């Protein structure tokens, strides 16, 4: 008999939390395109906001395989919440890796407790996948950096208390922490999203924001090449695992409907062309899960090849989620196209999952260029 580990317990805890707390709230979150701060406190009490935070700062410090399994559970339940956990990892992991001890002591415990909601601000009007095109400019003025620029499509931007913002200083990459109440820092909500509707996106305007030098993360020159790259690598892994969960949800909904729906005197599951779609769904979900598992094992082993494995996992898993959600809607027919239907939401969310943390076409370039036999 296998022993029950803390890691196993957290995966089961995630499954129960999604079933009991997340799923019953989906309709409200989708309708309002908003998740209240009280829900963040609830997630924090169960440890989910500290998944990537070291234990000495109040987190759980989970290994990547466990982290991936938890993200799969959240992706299966509701991708908007799963992506929030991804954003938390993209802030907390770089902060722990590149931040000073004072920065970690100040922020990580508060983040783990749900007292501080965090966001990461990379994307700009002219800078998406090509982060080198970032135009946000930081100028050193005495003991402060003066920041000017715009950020767009920033997850949790509407409610975050602390932002990990990326820019340039004399042409060199820079990363710094910006608090919500900083003078000159403006937040403009972005509404009407296709998918991940409860991610509370915003456009950020920084107008002569004065940021103390102690808010700098890492060194000047390392902001994009080290901090942002590290954050994106984290985001790709957890997003890939979330896509597996989304794919599994599509598969289960499709099977359930195919068994109940009678056409031509038999359940449509017995129709060969429906079987073909179900088969492709089964195989592709499993293949994506195995790619994520491989990436997680390599990440836990600190193997340099984990970067390529993570790229492949995110590329395949996100494309898989689009394909299986498409099939899920097709199998449901008109009933899958109605607002409020689970597969309708899966279909919308899957497209966003394919785009975030780098569109598929970017991965096709990186994977082909860097693959070695």
- For the record, give the distance between the C-alpha atoms at the N and C termini, rounded to a whole number: 40 Å
Mean pLDDT figure:
94
Structural class: alpha+beta
Whole-number total of structural domains? 3
Question: Total number of β-strand segments?
Answer: 9
Helix content: 40-55%
Please tell me how large the radius of gyration is: 21 Å
**Total of DSSP H or I helical runs spanning 4+ residues:** 11
Low-confidence stretches: none
Global shape? globular
Biggest sheet, strands in spatial order? 2-3-7-6
> Which architecture of the largest domain does the CATH hierarchy give at level 2?
Up-down Bundle
Element pattern in H and E? HHHHHHEEEEEEEHEEHHHH
What is the CATH homology-level superfamily of the largest domain? Butyryl-CoA Dehydrogenase, subunit A, domain 3
What's the CATH topology label of the largest domain? Answer: Butyryl-CoA Dehydrogenase, subunit A, domain 3
What proportion of the residues form beta strands (DSSP E)?
15-25%
Largest sheet: 4 strands, antiparallel
Return the CATH class of the largest domain.
Mainly Alpha
């Amino acid at each position: 008999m296998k022993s029950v580990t803390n890691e196993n317990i957290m995966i089961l805890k995630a499954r129960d939390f999604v079933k009991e707390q997340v799923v019953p709230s989906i309709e409200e979150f989708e309708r309002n395109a908003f998740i209240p701060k009280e829900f963040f406190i609830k997630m924090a009490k169960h440890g989910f906001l500290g998944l990537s935070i070291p234990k000495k700062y109040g987190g759980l410090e989970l290994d990547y395989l466990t982290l991936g399994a938890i993200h799969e559970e959240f992706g299966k339940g509701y991708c908007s919440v799963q992506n929030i956990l991804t954003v938390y990892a993209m802030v907390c992991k770089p902060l722990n890796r590149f931040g000073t001890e004072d920065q970690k002591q100040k922020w990580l415990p508060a983040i783990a407790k749900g007292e501080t909601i965090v966001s990461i601000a990379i994307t700009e009007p002219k800078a998406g996948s090509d982060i080198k095109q970032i135009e946000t400019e930081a100028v050193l003025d005495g003991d402060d950096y003066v920041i000017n620029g715009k950020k767009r499509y920033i997850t949790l931007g509407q409610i975050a208390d602390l932002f990990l913002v990326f820019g340039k200083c004399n042409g060199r990459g820079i990363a710094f922490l910006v608090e919500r109440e900083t003078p000159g820092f403006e937040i403009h909500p972005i509404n009407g999203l296709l998918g991940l509707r409860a991610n509370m996106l915003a456009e950020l305007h920084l107008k002569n924001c004065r940021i103390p030098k102690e808010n700098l993360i890492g060194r000047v020159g390392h902001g994009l090449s080290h901090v942002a790259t590290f954050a994106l690598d984290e985001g790709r892994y957890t997003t890939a695992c979330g896509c597996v969960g989304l794919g599994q949800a599509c598969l289960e909904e499709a099977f359930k409907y195919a068994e109940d729906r009678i056409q031509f005197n038999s359940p449509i599951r017995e129709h060969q062309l429906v079987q073909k779609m179900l088969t492709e769904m089964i195989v592709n979900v499993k293949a994506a899960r195995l790619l994520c598992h491989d990436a997680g094992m390599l990440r836990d082993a600190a193997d340099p090849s984990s970067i390529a494995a993570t790229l492949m996992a995110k590329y395949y898993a996100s494309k898989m989620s689009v394909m299986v959600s498409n099939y899920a809607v097709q199998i449901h027919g008109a009933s899958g196209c109605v607002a409020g239907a689970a597969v309708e939401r899966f279909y919308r969310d899957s497209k966003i999952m394919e785009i975030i943390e780098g569109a598929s076409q970017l991965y096709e370039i990186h994977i082909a260029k860097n693959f070695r036999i």
